[in-house]
């Protein structure tokens, strides 16, 4: 029987080792947490730029929380603890008889919609970076 040649499997073994190392070190979990935090801070900047300023207190009170994992779901909260923040966001009744209406500014809602539209491109770029790191020998 004729020999067809030799094949060096060492690079394939190195790739396998890199992928296994990445999986064992919770790289995916950390990737998700970092990505969500980055997106939250991007949204926070957009929200703050849209927040109307009188004294500046409303704008300063926007806070990005911590990434939390509940089961298979990751969550992060962007909040504002001023009692009137929701009125500025969503609108409110006004006047002595409460028949008037002040339109909301929707600074959070509009900003989150923008982030949602940009999310696929950001995610694809970050995933590509992660895969390149894993394939080049995660360290």
UniProtKB/TrEMBL annotation:
InterPro entries: HK97-gp10_tail (IPR010064)
Any one Pfam family match given in the protein's UniProt record, by short name: HK97-gp10_like
Superkingdom, natural source: Bacteria
The protein, known as: HK97 gp10 family phage protein
Species this protein is from: Paenibacillus amylolyticus
């Amino acid at each position: 029987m004729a020999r067809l040649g030799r094949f060096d499997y060492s690079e394939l073994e190195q790739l396998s080792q890199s992928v296994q190392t990445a999986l064992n070190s919770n790289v995916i979990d950390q990737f998700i947490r970092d990505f969500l935090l980055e997106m939250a801070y991007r949204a926070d900047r957009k929200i703050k730029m849209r927040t109307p300023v009188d004294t500046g207190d409303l704008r300063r009170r926007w806070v990005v929380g911590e990434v939390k994992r509940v089961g298979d779901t990751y969550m992060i909260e962007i909040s504002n603890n001023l009692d009137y923040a929701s009125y500025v966001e969503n609108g409110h009744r006004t006047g002595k008889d409460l028949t008037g209406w002040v339109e909301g500014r929707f600074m959070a809602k509009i900003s989150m919609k923008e982030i949602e539209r940009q999310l696929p491109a950001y995610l694809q770029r970050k995933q590509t970076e992660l895969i390149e790191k894993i394939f080049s020998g995660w360290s």
